[in-house]
Amino acid sequence: MPIAARLFVRTVWLQAAVMAFASSGLAGLLWSFAPLTYTALEWGPYDTWLQVRRQPAAGPDVLLVVRDAASDRQLGGGVWDRSLSARLIIALHDAGASAIGLDIPLNLPSPPHQGGAVSDALLIEAVKTTGMVAYPALQIPMPDQDPSLTPDPTSLVIPGKSIITPSADPDHVVRRARLLYREEGGDLPALGLRLAALRNPTAFTRPEEKLPLDGQGRLLIDFVGPHPTTAFHTVAVHDLLRLVEQKDAEGLAALANGKVIFLFTQPRSQADSLTPSGDMVSDLLLQAHLFHTLISEKWIRELSPLQRWVITLFLSGCIAWLVLRRPDWRGLLSGAAALWMYLTSSLALLAGSHWVFPFIIPVTAAVLVLVAANLLAQVMAGRRVALLEQDMLQIQQDLISVREALVYRETAVETLEED
């Protein structure tokens, strides 16, 4: 048998290392054919933890101005005149709001029967005058929008342009938010990031260097409350409009002073995003949760692909070594205990330190190792016995050769003495 084969048969840690690489590669290959199922299972413990943990409370500095059924009855059920939004923005600014998030893409003109260019000009002027409004640069679905209307290029120079496009995983669940988007003129921030920068300009100058982003520049959202749709303090549009019409400065100040306002004026579309809790939320509401995550600085961190791969190799290697050392039920029990310790420690780190560790690939690799290592241990035990028998036979043959050589030398010596 070659020296390399003998070394492999006799060295347990070398067998464990080979099995770790093989099982990790095979596990990754198997799950590459089912990305949707893999993502759902991989993030299953994380999604469950988000729902059963002690829920973070929404900060008092966020206010949602929502469009409800009463507002639709009072103002109509379709697309509203943008002069209404302009009026609300001016009133909130005068009441002391620190920043406002809007769900109207200013580069898309409104229909002529809903104010047309006049209402567009009023809204653009309100955005420019206040200087604290973030609005989406991309068109969000609006059922009553005339498809013949084209974007207005003059609106591209209005400050506050942002992105609210969600970043969904392969299982269509939104767990992260991308903070910066590449454009010809430079990086375009997410709306939640722009509002956070308006609230605290020095804290978010270079988010890619200060925040725990993944390889695609995305941040895990720390959702507020068990149901994201009802987490923040809200006020209906018609109630806010009543305060504006009554010129109730004290009421407006008590409602908006020092707060970041998210203004929901567009009709609800069907293109809502699915959150880990199973709720369907709008893109602007996702940005509200992103804003809360940035302001609270309670980061949920995930490992890089290289770190996940190293952890998988280490876990499967340790399990393989434990099983190969004892090719009986004690080896299997030790390997299963090591896997259980990894799972419990991963959950403890997620709950305590908010670190997300890999789940499905390490577990798959560990199961493959438990099955294959036990079989390999039996095979290697037989091979080691065979090698031992071969070595003993070789030793016996060497002893015979030595004995014959000694007899020959003794005979030669006796012959010389006789001569």
List the helices and strands and how they pair.
Layout: H1 3-10, H2 12-31, H3 35-42, H4 44-52, E1 62-66, H5 69-75, H6 82-94, E2 99-102, H7 116-130, E3 133-136, E4 161-162, E5 176-178, E6 180-183, E7 186-189, H8 191-199, H9 207-210, E8 218-220, E9 233-236, H10 237-245, H11 249-256, E10 260-263, E11 273-274, E12 280-281, H12 283-296, E13 301-302, H13 305-325, H14 329-353, E14 355-356, H15 360-418
Parallel strand pairs: 1-9, 1-10, 2-3, 2-10, 3-4, 13-14
Antiparallel strand pairs: 5-8, 6-7, 11-12
Strand content: 5-15%
Radius of gyration: 34 Å
Number of helices: 15
State the separation between the terminal residues, measured CA to CA: 47 Å
Helix content: 40-55%
Order of helices and strands: HHHHEHHEHEEEEEHHEEHHEEEHEHHEH
Number of strands: 14
Number of domain units? 2
Shape: rod-shaped
